[in-house]
User: Which sequence fits this backbone?
């Protein structure tokens, strides 16, 4: 037949070509002619369709592994060659794919690196565990480069002189914060406010602490004996309060440790919990709802990371109410006219006369009370921490002690057992510094710091490396699932060599995933997976002016909703379909208010069953207000962006990059005004250059038309959206006629839907494989630092095959992935059972 | 309540200890070289204009020396002979689209050339830094925010981002050796200690390298290379520390912006630090990203919006709405014109300062190349950079003209090569350069 004849000619042709470096005979003979015939028409230097060029591939070079993986994926998923062009025969496809796979297998050892350095948050966490001091070390480090949005990608974690210099500085701070023989340092401020009674905090501080250089600018804070210091209630938009200003040492080299005991006082049970904002040295450190029973809050920062103004570091505490509420007997403080704000709830806070109700207990407002504060200006923790319970003998000013301490430090830093000989260079440094006249602590710290600059500490090693595969695996899994180095139990198992006994790894994975420390996995993973670090647009047309428009509680809760939802889905081993469609969700008070779901009190997240609910969206990530609100632009839903985001991050089918210089399309301007989205986007489908990508993106985006700018459900959409401004802040309001929402669309493989719920059904029925594969690929990148290559993809396919029948239970999938050859970097397991 | 005491630390006295160098005044005065009787080295400062510009007000119609300056450049009228407008340059091979322009503005690399991965190469300011040094700080990367990615313009020899900073105080503190004699001694002791720490760690790194596979060895080598560079900088720094801190009027250095969120304040503070750095010769290479693609939303924007009748928008939207061919009287376009003009006002102020400082021959400005430009005219396009070059008369530049090249006739790399060569860097090529731009040379 004609095509085969052509191929035969090409085979001969290629056979006669001189051999180029890196090209095996398999490539020239078998694969290259096929590529030329089926691919080069579009993927050549001139056309570069999808911005991909294939005509300059000369074989399998390590540097091209991304490209070959992409080729493999496109072919195996049936996307390339495209449907309307000539496609491989079954034998030809097998030929190409087999060659690719065998190339990867051969190259695995030499081409694919397995090490990567700890990223900023892992480095900081490791330093915290190692020193026993919970300082936010990451503040001094440079941000990491990202790979596909993840901060764990090896290719994004490079070293420059600048970043190494910064690490040198941060490791110095870490060792400066610990001591061995030195006594505890002076420099503490301890106040138990429950023992005092005054009405003017400022005067009181002046009298008692001024000589230490501590002062405050807060006026009128009241303190009641037996209760504590009352922080005045602020509302969003109020200016900040200073709590205390502390003197900073001139060399600004110290650890500042602050411990606060706080509790909420709510004169009436209907009042919401106050949110406490904590700012130290110019940086916001914390933001949380304070419970009635109280809480101890602890913060540790380095002075170098603080803003020091005129020799002082300022600690700011703000107790803010960010949840609207009403109290019987008090009128509403919001005075906008009814109907002025469409769909407005009309209740924010009760209006009361402060002159009449002077005492906090009489006022209908929640208050945060500071019971006690301890500030350690120059915190230096004894090392090793007592909680480790490790060092039996007392530390003395001797080389024996130095050696013992060094061995302990190095073993913990390198996350594996160490021999005395390995510690010798650091002991040598210690000896030299002692002979230079330094005291014990001063000489040991640089030796400790030197250990922190070695790859043993700063790199993740692979279980495939010679040496300590069990410890490397414990480390890899621990950093993935908790963001921290392996804990005692994990270390013990590795020590005994039991990690690869049947069921042990799975049990450890389950232990970590269901532990609260798994937050160190879910928060960065979900945020990066779904690209959630974007501004969330929340119009406040339904919550009153000023106070909640850019309310932190609502925005923070929106992000928390998705993170917590995924955490529960995985920890409770739910089927993967529930990621996009379920009958449960997670809510707190402000989210429930936002969605219009009654009966949810308290600022904490909890699981809520939606089976009997009226909520039209049901459970699942696509229905989260934070997600939909994030994917909007210029006053309305951005159908294209929503479609593109969904394709990219949920369906694992990213659209190719847009061509250079795409003209803008504004639905509210010019002749587009008043047209429905569908009419406006018809442009895309009319032009073949645009249609090839947009025919998948646009129809999909329509699934979300029921979500307005703030991610709430709507059944009507407007003629156009007009920009309104309140106090210089932008707000979009629908204007003109309204019409029912048009949510008719189509999924990429053609499945039609006429509304959001139908869309979810189609997803769960036909796209589970895509969703699961996408998730497993991203978990691979997150856990190993490598974008999944062909070998990884094949293992993922196998894992999926064994879980398809049971509905892809999420925790089981994760466990299988983490114990698969992917996490062993494709080496054999026998050598690992040490 | 227990009291605090710092008895453990030595009480550090204030600034102003005796030092080896004669005094310098900040505002007017001389450069280090002029004071010491040496020859002034070249300096380089690159400024990047984010988003798009108001091209109606930027590009002059005529070329040559008699061109009529666009209204954007009106603040520079007193410096007419000291700057040139260069039009038509762009990255040709390295052309990209979208908001990643700061990544490759100074590198010319096509960062999207490998699908799935972002690659980059060295930025030309780092090439300059390598040859113009050693200085106390090899180079300074300033920006509207601290970080990497689109926040910084500088990439090292491996194409890895060099973090930029927006913290004026930190810049100032790191710009100079410590003042006090005991602090100085402490700093030198610290350097020696750091050398020992790196030395000891380095041994372990080298030992590990021998055991690894190819790709991993490359990564470790990258780390070793970085360590070596840090060690070299420590040595350079130690040599400079021996001379102590330049004596100047420190009290009058402004490090806190007066306005809450003012673009002008921010730029002036940054540029003052640049002038100070160049005058005291603490560094010779600075890059400064004047703003972000999507922010910050400076306080000037609402004022400008009122003046031009433009609606309130975020910075990113202004870049889009004000760019392209909407007409010179479009309110958003006029707003961008005001922003462009503010850049020029700040540049003029910097040029005033540098011109008033005497160098070994001529002024500091005569030995400084200032390059200010952007990579977008409209939307996300990356062709025909708006570009302005100033200063450097003693480096061989010829100013006072508008030069325009045809599209894709010359690349920005040609300009960068020209600048490097005038700064006496021994380089024959930069990225896609084909040769120098003789039109701008005396």
Assistant:
């Amino acid at each position: 037949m004609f095509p085969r004849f052509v191929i035969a000619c090409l085979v001969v042709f290629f056979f006669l070509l001189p051999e180029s470096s890196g090209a095996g005979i398999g490539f020239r003979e078998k694969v290259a002619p096929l590529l030329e015939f089926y691919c080069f028409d579009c993927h050549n230097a001139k056309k570069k369709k999808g911005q991909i060029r294939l005509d300059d591939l000369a074989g399998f070079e390590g540097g091209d592994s991304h490209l070959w993986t992409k080729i493999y994926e496109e072919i195996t998923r049936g996307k390339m060659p495209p449907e309307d062009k000539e496609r491989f025969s079954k034998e030809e496809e097998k030929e190409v794919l087999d060659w690719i796979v065998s190339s990867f297998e051969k190259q695995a050892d030499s081409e694919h690196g397995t090490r990567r350095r700890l990223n900023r948050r892992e480095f900081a966490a490791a330093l915290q565990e190692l020193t026993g001091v919970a300082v936010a070390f990451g503040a001094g480090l440079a941000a990491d480069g990202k790979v596909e949005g993840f901060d764990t990608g090896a290719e994004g974690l490079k070293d420059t002189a600048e970043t190494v210099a910064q690490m040198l500085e941060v490791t110095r701070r870490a060792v400066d914060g610990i001591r061995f023989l030195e006594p505890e340092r002076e420099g503490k401020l301890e106040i138990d406010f429950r023992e005092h009674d005054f009405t003017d905090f400022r005067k009181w501080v002046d009298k008692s602490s001024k000589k230490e250089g501590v002062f405050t600018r807060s006026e009128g804070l009241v303190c009641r004996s037996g209760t504590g210091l009352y922080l005045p209630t602020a509302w969003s938009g109020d200016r900040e309060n200073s709590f205390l200003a502390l003197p900073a040492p001139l060399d600004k080299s110290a650890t500042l440790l602050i411990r606060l005991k706080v509790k909420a006082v709510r004169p009436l049970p209907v009042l919401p919990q106050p949110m406490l904002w904590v700012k130290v040295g110019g940086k916001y450190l914390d933001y949380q709802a304070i419970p009635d029973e109280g809480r101890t809050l602890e913060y540790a920062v380095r002075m170098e990371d603080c803003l020091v103004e005129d020799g002082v570091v300022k600690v700011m505490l703000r107790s803010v109410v960010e949840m609207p509420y009403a109290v019987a007997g008090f009128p509403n403080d919001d005075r906008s006219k009814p109907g002025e704000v469409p769909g407005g709830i009309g209740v924010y806070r009760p209006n009361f006369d402060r002159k009449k109700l002077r005492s906090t207990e009489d006022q209908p407002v929640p208050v945060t009370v500071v019971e006690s504060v301890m500030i350690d200006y120059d915190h230096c923790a004894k090392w090793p921490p007592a909680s480790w319970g490790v060092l039996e003998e007392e530390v003395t000013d001797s080389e024996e002690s130095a050696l013992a301490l060094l061995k302990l430090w190095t073993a913990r830093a390198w996350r594996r057992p160490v021999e005395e000989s390995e510690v010798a260079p650091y002991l040598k440094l210690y000896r030299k510094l002692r002979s230079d006249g330094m005291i014990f602590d001063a000489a040991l710290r640089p030796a400790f710091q030197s250990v922190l600059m070695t790859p043993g500490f700063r790199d993740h090693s692979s279980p495939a490396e010679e040496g300590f595969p069990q410890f490397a695996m414990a480390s890899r899994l621990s950093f993935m699932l908790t963001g921290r180095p392996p804990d005692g139990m994990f270390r013990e198992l590795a020590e005994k060599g039991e990690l690869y006994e049947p069921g042990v790894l799975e049990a450890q994975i389950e232990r970590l995933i269901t532990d609260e420390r798994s937050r160190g996995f879910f928060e960065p993973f979900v945020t990066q997976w779904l690209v959630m670090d974007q501004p969330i647009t929340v119009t406040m047309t339904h919550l009153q002016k000023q106070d909640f428009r850019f309310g932190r509680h609502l925005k923070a809760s929106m992000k928390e909703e998705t993170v917590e939802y995924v955490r529960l889905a995985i920890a409770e081993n739910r089927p993967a379909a529930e990621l996009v469609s379920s009958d449960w969700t997670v809510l707190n008070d402000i989210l429930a208010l936002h969605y219009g779901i009654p009966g949810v009190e308290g600022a904490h997240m909890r699981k809520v069953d939606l089976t009997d609910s009226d909520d039209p969206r049901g459970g699942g990530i696509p229905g989260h207000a934070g997600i939909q609100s994030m994917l909007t632009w210029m006053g309305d839903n951005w159908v294209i962006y929503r479609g593109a985001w969904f394709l990219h991050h949920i369906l694992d089918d990213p659209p190719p990059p847009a061509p250079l210089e795409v003209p803008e399309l504004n639905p509210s301007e010019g002749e587009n005004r008043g047209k429905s989205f569908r009419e406006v986007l018809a442009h895309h489908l009319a032009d073949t250059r645009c249609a090839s990508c947009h025919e998948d993106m646009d129809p999909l985006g329509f699934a979300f038309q029921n979500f307005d700018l703030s991610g709430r459900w709507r059944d009507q959409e407007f003629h156009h959206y007009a920009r309104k401004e309140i106090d210089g802040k932008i707000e979009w309001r629908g204007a003109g006629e309204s019409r029912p929402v048009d949510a008719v669309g189509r999924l990429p493989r053609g499945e039609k839907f006429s509304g959001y719920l139908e869309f979810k059904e189609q997803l769960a029925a036909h796209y589970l494989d895509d969703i699961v594969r996408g998730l497993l690929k991203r978990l691979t990148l997150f856990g190993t630092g490598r974008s999944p290559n062909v070998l990884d993809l094949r293992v993922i396919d196998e894992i999926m095959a064994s879980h398809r029948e049971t509905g892809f239970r999420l925790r089981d999938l994760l466990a299988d992935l983490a114990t698969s050859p992917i996490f062993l970097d494709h080496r054999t397991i026998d050598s690992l059972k040490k | 309540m227990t009291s605090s005491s710092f008895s453990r630390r030595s009480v550090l006295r204030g600034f102003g200890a005796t030092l080896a160098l004669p005094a310098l005044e900040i505002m007017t005065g001389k450069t280090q070289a002029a004071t010491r009787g040496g020859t002034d080295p070249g300096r380089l400062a690159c400024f990047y204009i984010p988003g798009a510009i108001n091209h109606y007000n930027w590009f002059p119609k005529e070329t040559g020396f008699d061109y009529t300056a666009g209204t954007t450049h009106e603040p520079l009228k007193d410096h007419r002979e000291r700057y040139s407008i260069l039009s038509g340059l762009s990255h040709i091979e390295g052309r990209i689209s979208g908001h990643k322009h700061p990544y490759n503005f100074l590198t010319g690399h096509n960062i999207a050339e490998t699908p799935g991965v972002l690659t980059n190469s060295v930025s030309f300011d780092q090439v300059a830094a390598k040859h113009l040094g050693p200085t106390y700080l090899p180079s300074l990367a300033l920006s509207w925010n601290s970080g990497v990615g689109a926040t910084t313009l500088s990439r090292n020899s491996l194409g890895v981002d060099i973090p930029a900073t927006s913290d004026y105080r930190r810049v100032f503190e790191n710009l100079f050796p410590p003042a006090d004699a005991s602090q100085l001694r402490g700093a030198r002791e610290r350097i020696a200690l750091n050398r020992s720490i790196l030395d000891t760690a380095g041994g372990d790194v080298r030992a590990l390298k021998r055991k690894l596979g190819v790709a991993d060895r490359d990564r470790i080598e990258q780390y070793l290379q970085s360590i070596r560079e840090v060690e070299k900088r420590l040595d350079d720094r130690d040599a400079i520390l021996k001379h102590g801190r330049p004596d100047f009027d420190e009290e009058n250095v402004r490090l806190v912006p007066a306005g809450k969120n003012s673009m002008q304040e921010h730029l002036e503070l940054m540029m003052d630090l640049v002038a100070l750095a160049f005058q005291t010769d603490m560094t010779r290479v600075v890059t400064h990203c004047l703003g972000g693609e999507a922010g910050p939303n400076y306080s000037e924007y609402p004022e400008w919006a009122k003046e031009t009748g433009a609606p309130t928008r975020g910075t990113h939207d202004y870049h889009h709405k004000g760019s392209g061919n909407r007409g010179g009287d479009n309110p958003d376009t006029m707003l961008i014109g005001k922003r462009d003009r503010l850049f020029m006002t700040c540049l003029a102020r910097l040029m005033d300062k540098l011109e008033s400082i005497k160098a070994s021959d001529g002024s500091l400005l005569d030995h400084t190349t200032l390059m200010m430009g952007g990579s977008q005219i409209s939307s996300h396009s990356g062709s025909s950079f708006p570009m302005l070059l100033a200063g450097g008369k003693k480096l061989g530049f010829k100013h006072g003209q508008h030069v325009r090249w045809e599209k894709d006739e010359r690349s920005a790399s040609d300009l960068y090569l020209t600048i490097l060569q005038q700064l006496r860097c021994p380089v024959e090529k930069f990225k896609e350069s084909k040769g120098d731009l003789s039109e701008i040379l005396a």
Remarks:
- Chain B touches chain A through 72 residues (CB under 8 Å).
- The two ends of chain B are 73 Å apart (CA to CA).
